[in-house]
Amino acid sequence: MRFVIVTGMSGAGKSTALKMLEDMKYFCVDNVPIQLLEKFIALMLEAGSADMENAALGIDIRSGSSMDALSEVLERMKAAGFRFEVLFLDAQDSVLVKRYKETRRRHPLSREGRVDEGIRLEREMLKSLRCHADYLVDTSKLLTRELREELEEIFVHNKDFRNMVVSILSFGFKYGIPQDADLVFDVRFLPNPFYVDELRTLTGMDEAVFRYVMDSEDTVPFLDRLEDMIRFLAPRYEKEGKTSLVIAVGCTGGKHRSVSVARELFGRLSSTGGYSYRLEHRDILRDRPARG
Questions:
Q1: Can you spell out the DSSP letters for 29-68?
Q2: Does residue 9 sit in the same domain as residue 133?
């Protein structure tokens, strides 16, 4: 039987993840008291059957002060031979605040309604548990569909998991550099399809524009070097504990060159796996000229 302990920051998607695991035929129980964790797993092992091959247990700060003993309990379980995995769901503080504001929920640890103070206290309480995580998933930018795909890869298809999501983002410099970009690359040195009448109203998602950009003598050598550099940097960022790497590719308006280069870069990197890759075009629909 495969046991998964699902935990993480309030608002990061723990309840959603448990529902998804339930859909994947996991027996799920939420808010298991930490004092009963060892006995609970032992009973499940004893009662294991063909109808209950896998189980997921939700644990969070609702356990209160007993959270302090969780690391000790997990270590004791490992020493006793219990096999389990820890899935920790996290998100950026600004994202968590926004989610609480939208749902009008009160953070379990908030004082006088201050969500940010509750998040700060919760991070402190979960610090040691985060260190025990086998899978650390940052849901800040994940759609519900993407979270489901991520969990299926790990807990259904048993694919190797890396704790970092690599986002490749095209953008236009005229609209500003993305605030969350870790690496920014300027492709305005490439020929601009905007000045070709039949390509102006198209974007890098159209094959004619994509081929125009890719056929430039500088595009492929640039992408070769960029790909090599990212493959060199990504594991080093991961080693430093980074869970999200945003690679921003920019041109003037974010519709032609940057979109084409981002598409090709995403295809090259994602084809070999290793990380979870996302592709996004921030400005592709901004001020777009009408066709015809």
A1: E-S--GGGHHHHHHHHHHT-BTTB-EEEEE--GGGGGGGG
A2: yes
